[in-house]
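Re: the 228-residue chain
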Amino acid sequence: MNGMVLFLCFGVLVGALAIYGWYAAKRRREELGSWAQSRGLSFSESRECGLDDRYPEFDNLRKGDHRYAYNTMRGAWQKRPFYGFDYHYETHSTDSKGRRETQHHNFSVVILDSDIPLQPLLIRPEGLFDKLAEFFGFEDINFESAEFSRKFYVKAPNKKWAYDVIHPRCMEFLLSMPQFTLQFAPGYVMACRDKALRAEEFAQAADVAAGILERLPEYVVLQQKAGA
C-alpha cells in the first residue's frame, strides 16, 4: 500500500511539474510577443534549426545536439537588423545503472548585423576559473583600466584589434552597462548570457551590442571597409 501511495504521489508531482512548465513557457511566449510588438519586432514561437551553420563562428550555437532557436524576434534595433531568440540544445550522460539521461539547456541570444566587416573578438564577464587560469600564467588581454581588466575577460587572435575596439570610451561604456558575453563574427555581434533573458534584458543586450559598434573609432571603420 505504501508503495502504491508513493507511486501516486510521484505521478501527481510529475504532472504538476509538467503543467507548471507548460504554463511558464506559455507566459514567456506571451511576454516576449508583447514586448516584441511594442518594439516593432516580429515574433514567432516556431522552432528554427540550422543556426550553427548560419553563424559558425558562435561556438555556443554548436553545443550538444537537437539544437534549435524558438521565440524568435526580428526587426531593426537602432537602425541595425536585429535577431533575438531563445536557444535549446541537449547533452547526454549515463547514470550508475547505465541508463542514458538527457539534459536540456536553454539560453537567450541577441544578434545585430554590423555594417562593416569585423574581426574575431570575445568579451565576457571574468569568472573564477579565469582568475585561476591567470594565476597559472594563462592570461587574457589586459587593458590600462584595472577595473575593466578585473571585470572582463577579453580574447582575440589579433590583440591590436582588441585594443582598437576597446578604447577608453568603449571601456567606460561597457563598465556602465549590464554585462553580457559579446562575440564578434565577420558581419555580426552577438550578446548573450547562459540563461533565458527577460524581455527587458533583450533590450539591454541589443543596446550593449549596438553601443560597442557605434563607438568604433573612425579609423577602424575606414580600415575595415578598405580591407573588405
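The helical segments are 2-38, 51-54, 128-135, 146-151, 159-165, 168-176, 199-214, 218-226.
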